[in-house]
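Dear support,

I submitted the protein below through the web form. The confirmation email said the job was done, but the results page showed an empty box. After a refresh the structure appeared. I'm attaching both so you can tell me whether what I see now is the final result or a partial one.
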Amino acid sequence: LDPVHIKPLSSLAKMKLTLAIAAALIGSANAFSAVAPNGNAAAAVDHSLKGIDDGAAHDVFDPTAGDNAALTRNNKDDVWVPQRARPRRNRKSAAVRAMLRENIVTPANFIYPLFIHEEDFNTAIPSMPGCERHSLDSMVREVGESYDLGVKTFVLFPKVPDELKTNLGVEAYNPDGIVHRAIRMIKEKYPDSVVCTDVALDPYSDQGHDGVVEDGKILNDVTINQLCKQAVSQARAGADVVAPSDMMDGRVGAIRDALDSEGFTDVSILAYTAKYASAYYGPFRDALDSHPGFGDKKTYQQDPANGREALVEAALDASEGADMLMVKPGMPYLDIIRRLKDATPLPVAAYHVSGEYAMIKAACEKGWLEEKDVVLETLTCFKRAGADIILTYYAKQAAQWMKDDGIF
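What the results page shows now:
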């Protein structure tokens, strides 16, 4: 580099550089000063460690002695491991760690799932402490408070009255149904928010399954016919993203074509690509009162033992027009998130499901875990595994923690 062409630093730039160097030096010095839990600094240590075992009542091994010594001594006669590469140098201070951090979670990465019902009051969900079934007015307030914290995307899950449930799930595409009214209320008050909707029949089914049932079998193509009606009706109400969670074969392509044919080419599809037949969904089904009326969902949701199968589903969903791909559950399936991230250029979402949420809550209520630290670590793990988007019931609370810490 030609010194002639190097521009001199301004006074402000010089000041910033000086402060940055000072902060790094102070941080480095602090990193290597041992501090006891009571806050008292530990006494200085003689790094030569000579004579510390003099008078010991037993034979003490000396790692620096012998022809094949484990350690040697440096020019200052201190004990020394002659290793050039020391990864701890990149962890020596908060400033250095922040500079080198590979993955950062922000509230913008979150989708906040909200449970709604027709009542004019909220109902606590015992298996999901801190979560409620919201009245529609409460839902709007919750959206507003979350929006102010940087959470701008929401997905709606309704508890539908039993008298409206049928095998064909016709209430799913009622333009005056609870989800459709909820969409309109959110978009009217917060037009720049992103509203996602669940596309599946289980909240509306008197059989408790994601699709239409005949003789104990879930009908694939008949179900997709109903899902197309549901998705189009949600788009008409103002949904920005539809999220088919049913796991029927071919539903993404059919929904894409249905939306496009009605002029909703801008409505996105977040496909539940790798939705496993998991035991972690129990609290969610409590929230919606949508437990299967018979059997289980293993004929359409994926086998937890299978990984390659997720790649098959991902390839199909991408070819059928999905805009984003989801893995559900999240933490037990970080390997699947990574596989999808490596296999597709599409954004990948992870669903931090109700069972995972409930486990953290239960452990924290027992005093076994520190909730804030565990939650933020968990969300970071999703990001590290490859998730661009995280659906979590902790969205609002995590965003508040981030704000309180001055992160955002």
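Response: this is the final, complete result; the empty box was a page-load delay. The longest strand covers residues 268-275.
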